[in-house]
Amino acid sequence: MANIVMFGILAVVILGSAIVCVTTTRIMRAATFLLFVLFGVAGLYFLLDYTYLGAAQISVYAGGISMIYIFAIQLVSKRTLQGLTERVKIKRFVMGGLLSLVGFATVVAVFVKNHFLQTWSAADDVEVPMSTIGEALLGSEKYQYVLPFEFISVFLLACIIGGIVVARKEEETK
């Protein structure tokens, strides 16, 4: 019963923070609420007794990625931090909602086409060993994820360098 209550609290925190993160007009508030979402997901990992994944979530995502976002925001968007905000246009809001519905319909269509829901309900709670998960995450064979992870890290590094270059070009032109 306590797990259900904790899950409910974490779900409310995650969903509420995610909604505020997306709808706020202040960029530093968005980064702060993103941090709350990442901490909430770490709480879910701890609730499932995946302590390693919870600790990795806190150290890598909540710590590292949030700091990268905040530093990139501070380097690139100085006027936004001074209180100037962007107005939300109704047209963008409607288009975002329509694109979200199209994305949701696509996910549902893929689930129905691949009979995912029937396969999932017939699995009877088969537990996957942690060694299999580790091999899938750190392997370099087909359907293993170390190469995409490395590409993402190089992409993030390129984004940081691009943010620094853009920030320096603004200073030179003044």
Walk me through what this model shows.
There is one protein chain. The protein is mostly helical. It has helices at 2-23, 27-47, 51-76, 78-81, 90-113, 116-121, 130-138, 146-173. α1 runs antiparallel to α2 (27-47), α2 runs antiparallel to α3 and α3 packs parallel to α8 (146-173). The radius of gyration is 20 Å and the shape is globular. The relative contact order is 0.07. The mean pLDDT is 80.
Q: Layout of SSEs?
A:
Layout: H1 2-23, H2 27-47, H3 51-76, H4 78-81, H5 90-113, H6 116-121, H7 130-138, H8 146-173
Helix pairs in contact: 1-2, 2-3, 3-8
- Please tell me the overall pLDDT: 80
Put simply, the count of helices is: 8
User: Helices and strands: which structural class?
Assistant: mainly alpha
| Proportion of beta-strand residues | under 5%
Global geometry: globular
Radius of gyration: 20 Å
Total count of strands = 0
**Head-to-tail CA distance between termini:** 61 Å
List key phrases describing it.
174 residues; mainly alpha; 8 helices; globular
Concise overview:
The protein is built from eight helices and no strands.
